[in-house]
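As described in the Methods, two query proteins were run sequentially through the folding procedure within a single session, without resetting any intermediate state between them. The first query and its resulting structure tokens are shown here.
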Amino acid sequence: MYPRLFSIGPITVYSYGLMLGIGFMSASWVLMRELKRKGLDPNLSSNITVLAIVFGIAGSKILYLIENWEYFVKSPVTMAFSPGGLTWYGGFILATAAIWVYVRWWKKIPFLKICDATAPGLMLAYGIARIGCHLAGDGDYGVPTDLPWGCVYANGTYPPSAAFREFPQIVSQYGVNGVVPDTIPVHPAPLYEFFYGVLLFYILWKVRLHFTIDGKLFMVYLMLSGVARILVELVRINPRILFGLTEAQLISSAIVLIGLIGFQILSKTKDASLGAAR
């Protein structure tokens, strides 16, 4: 793994930060195209992207600190300002709220119209950012595997010897003197997420022209991305906290439900409008 790609004098380029930046730029470009197609000001894309970056990173860090509260209270400054430790859904929720305020109350633009415009690029950015997680080896990988594409994250920022110490079953099965070797092959979950991110971006990009009701594409995004995350969590090393599910699976399940209900409501709205027109 390559957490640090290269240095130019005192400046070090980190793989995760680089891929995160590429992801945001890609999403901004896709958003600009979609805003223009929808007859909206394409320059809004830069403001929305800035909000997504600031509140996305802040929300990701806040949720990560909440998840690791017992460690945070012991070393608050170190954990709060460390470059690692970001939880996707925290950023997604806070950034969405910030963009809602900006779009709905400041710009007076229908929020669901903007949501549809952001959906494809958001999925693409997610996939690209996961390449950064893979290169950094930051603990987003999966359980040990003997599959031929298993990856070794020995040089990552959070190697298996540290990542698996909270999982006694894995330690007892694969550990040597109570420690899982850093050289053990594991599921490259970030790569799985990259592949499904690109695939779902392609699907959303293809079907976007078939929806005429604002919000329906975004509801499809919620359902597809939520189901994909539930599935990849089956091999991720996150702890099970309720009903045998991880925190991400519980949040994803709620997001899938929101997408399903939202899609149904929007479909009925269209049917009602057609009935009134007749």
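Immediately afterward, the second query was submitted; its sequence and tokens are:
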Amino acid sequence: NAEQYPIAAKAGFGKKKDAEDKISDKLAALHFYQLAIPAPKPPKDSFNEEAAGRGKILFNEKAQCASCHVPPLFTEPGYNAHKPEDIGIDDFQANRSPDKTYVTQSLKGLWIRKRGFYHDGRFPTLLDVINHYDNFKKLSLAESEKTDLVEYLKSL
């Protein structure tokens, strides 16, 4: 799309240089492989197990997280793309993709990340992400529920 990607179009990046497509038929296997890589397990005592248990219930019910981050992969099966207005953020990063959407990322292994969550790191902490969705979706989560959700996310 020369209008959306003028520099790439000018450089000819959209023009196929050889007659044989050596990539497309391998993408499904690559995707399967990526999904099959196990996420690293959180270290013992890196999260509060009791709070994580309560957070799991919230994740699947009141907080509505599992509607997009579906267990056991904690991403969305099938077409997992959302328009910015669906997730309550601007379209700055989405406009870089051909369909102008954000992809639902897996939440597994979040404990490794210490700062910079979301597609572009705009939320410094997991609590900031939870506060965003609490406000955007009008969930009315109590502070203790938010803490429990953070502990659950750290346990994935």
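The helical segments are 6-11, 27-36, 49-60, 84-87, 126-136, 143-155. We note this only descriptively and draw no conclusion about the first query from it.
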